[in-house]
UniProtKB/TrEMBL annotation:
NCBIfam families: glmS, PRK00331.1. The active site is at C2 (nucleophile), K602 (for fru-6p isomerization activity). One of its GO terms (molecular function) is carbohydrate derivative binding. This is Glutamine--fructose-6-phosphate aminotransferase [isomerizing]. Its EC number is 2.6.1.16. Keywords: Aminotransferase, Cytoplasm, Glutamine amidotransferase, Repeat, Transferase. Residues 282-422, 455-597 form the SIS domain. It catalyses: D-fructose 6-phosphate + L-glutamine = D-glucosamine 6-phosphate + L-glutamate. Homodimer. GO terms for cellular component: cytosol. It is found in: Cytoplasm. Catalyzes the first step in hexosamine metabolism, converting fructose-6P into glucosamine-6P using glutamine as a nitrogen source.
Length: 607
């Protein structure tokens, strides 16, 4: 999962390519590079690490040329070094790639046997050589690409530049997104509409297997069987303005603070406050015949799905399967005709989730998608699109997308329950009332930021941290552990509180802080018993609860964090906030890169 952009421009393009990369950095930031054709030759600049290094490189050694391609990398094959940075080039061809060429090894061996030499350890470089070989033998760029594409297995989006044809670029898409942008006497390729936002809003989304030849005059698109095809040009509506941090130190902090507003915005689309009803963006989508829901997602989105499983089963009494997208297809799940498969994703591009979606479609499922990027592949492949209105999420660690997903899923569960005849109007009214309280309650949770910041130093020296929760607090424990490990690099695990005694309690000593998520309510006492089992063994507990909970069980804790008292339905949205803030402050104290933690990328478009 890397970001790619190509421009056939009227003027020099290097600066605009780099501006596009800034918008794509969420896809990876291990290295970056740009290539143009000028003076009859391909020229490139590449740099290891963050995009700033490439900017410095270009400042010292500018790159002229009106046609060019650029790339920001999340390393798959080969370390994040300059020689593995894209574009990869021969004398004739330079290309950038997002995805994985799964059969690169035999292709590489074959090319080496024919005398070609490689400069990198990447899977990508084989494509540059395969295309170049044919061009060197006299094939046109179009013929060369047409012959090479069927030889590539795996997932790719490609943008290819040719020394002898500085007036064209060729792009191809299989499994990784690629869009064509139409400008005024200019044409563009990009991983998404966001990359091209300041250049054009007129976007065509390539479909699986499509490839495209772009010139300044426009684009010629071909499908996987090489037939010329038209793909509709849509107006993306994505803002060209660079998103900024406002008064906040990090995007993650800004996004945590945006939650009351964006959750309210999201709920507005799903609640009819006037008549106390929940609703769907497609009101006539029939949910009454749904007998089973299969929820599939990755990472934080998976934990949102885990919370939703409780709601679907409790409200609608519909059985729910839940799986990681990366595992789902491989167990070849049996999916009854007519079931609903529900995919949850911030980006809408996560390769594992997208592949699972396509599997579910092949099994005759209706496809519902909870997604934050409305122009994403998943959004476009859904039967029932359930958007979150979180706005662009830039921090790599997901925060506001998660609480907005929870808001959508709670409303969706209530819709399903009503369609199944399981919800009386009075119960529906109660659900609407509680959900409507969520934004203010999240705001109330944010008011404890300083207290959380003050206790974060207890966690900083830890090597391991455990998070415990029960019921819907269990996925929040998992989410808290994920947040902490990904941005502070402290090892953390979430456990179902009742499972501690079946093994993990052996880990407890005074050096392992245990964060207990236990709002007062039906499960409080049981969780507190598990917490006391930890304390009895010398464990240092941080209790996150409301005033009543802290009064009842706070004694003897290393620290307590007091949340507003809320209804259990919205507790997951509210208790997400302290675990996000805790991870944030620990990371700040440790001095890690909060918004771009090591080894990660925002959009994971490789399987
Ligand atoms: C964690 C995080 C990831 C994503 C996961 C799925 O903070 O952001 O775990 O949740 O990569 O991404 P989406 O939701 O875009 O499918």
């Amino acid at each position: 999962m890397c970001g790619i952009i190509g421009i056939i421009g009227k003027d020099d393009v290097a600066e605009r390519l780099v501006d596009g990369l800034k918008r794509l950095e969420y896809r990876g930031y291990d290295s970056a590079g740009v290539a143009t054709v000028h003076g009859g030759a391909i020229d490139r600049r590449r740099a290891e690490g963050k995009l700033n290094n490439l900017v410095k490189e270009l400042a010292g050694s500018p790159l002229p040329g009106t046609t060019g391609i650029a790339h920001t990398r999340w390393a798959t094959h080969g370390a994040p070094t300059t020689s593995n940075a894209h574009p990869h080039a021969t004398g004739e061809v330079a290309l950038v790639h997002n995805g994985i060429i799964e059969n690169f090894k035999p292709l590489r061996d074959e090319l080496i046997a024919r005398g070609r030499t490689f400069d990198s350890q990447t899977d990508t470089e084989v494509v540059a050589h395969l295309v170049s070989e044919l061009v060197e033998q006299g094939a046109s760029p179009k013929d060369a690409v047409r012959q090479v594409l069927p030889r590539l297995h795996g997932a790719f989006a490609l943008a290819i530049l040719f020394r002898s044809h500085p007036d064209m670029l060729i792009g191809a898409r299989l499994g990784s997104p690629l869009v064509v942008g139409y400008g005024d006497g200019e044409t563009y390729l990009g991983s998404d509409a966001l990359a091209l936002a300041p250049l054009t809003q007129r976007i065509a989304y390539l479909e699986e297997g499509d490839w495209v030849v772009i010139t300044a005059q426009g684009a010629e698109i071909f499908d996987k069987d090489n037939n010329p095809v038209e793909r509709p040009v849509t107006i993306s509506g994505v803002s060209g303005a660079m998103i900024d941090k406002g008064n906040h130190r990090h995007f993650m902090q800004k996004e945590i603070y945006e939650q009351p507003v964006v959750v309210a915005q999201t709920l507005k689309a799903y609640l009819q406050r006037m008549d106390d009803r929940v609703s769907l963006p497609i009101p006539d989508f029939d949910l009454s015949a749904i007998r089973r829901v299969t929820i599939v997602a990755c990472g934080t989105s998976f934990y949102a799905g885990m919370v939703a499983r409780y709601w679907f089963e409790q409200f609608a009494r519909v059985p729910v399967d839940l799986d990681f997208a990366s595992e789902f297809r491989y167990r070849e799940p049996v999916m009854e005709e007519g079931g609903l498969a529900l995919f949850i994703s911030q980006s809408g591009e996560t390769a594992d989730t997208l592949a699972a979606l396509r599997y579910a479609r092949s099994q005759g499922q209706k496809i519902a998608v909870v997604v934050n990027v409305p122009t994403s592949s998943m959004a476009r492949e859904a039967d029932l699109l359930l958007p979150t209105h979180a706005g662009p999420e830039i921090g790599v660690a997901s925060t506001k997308a998660f609480t907005c997903q929870l808001a959508v899923l709670a409303a969706f569960a209530a819709n399903l329950a009503r369609a199944k005849g399981r919800l009386t109007p009075a119960e529906e009214k109660e659900i609407v009332r509680h959900l409507a309280e969520a934004p203010a309650a999240i705001n109330g949770a944010l008011a404890y930021d300083e207290a959380i910041e003050a206790m974060a130093h207890h966690i900083v020296p830890a090597r391991d941290v455990l998070y415990l929760g029960r019921g819907t607090d269990y996925p929040i424990a998992l989410e808290g552990a994920l947040k902490l490990k990904e941005i502070s690099y402290i090892h953390a695990e979430g456990y179902a509180a009742g499972e501690m005694k079946h093994g993990p309690i052996a880990l407890i000593d005074e050096l392992v802080p245990v964060i207990c998520i236990a709002p007062s309510g039906p499960l409080f006492e049981k969780t507190v018993s598990n917490m006391q089992e930890v304390q009895a063994r010398g464990g240092k507990v941080v209790l996150i609860s409301d005033y009543d909970g802290v009064q009842a069980a706070g004694e003897g804790c290393l620290a307590t964090i007091t949340m507003p008292k809320v209804h259990p339905l919205i507790a997951p949205m509210v208790y997400a906030v302290p675990v996000q803030l805790l991870a944030y402050h620990v990371a700040v104290l440790k001095g890690t890169d909060v918004d771009q933690p090591r080894n990660l990328a925002k959009s994971v478009t490789v399987e």
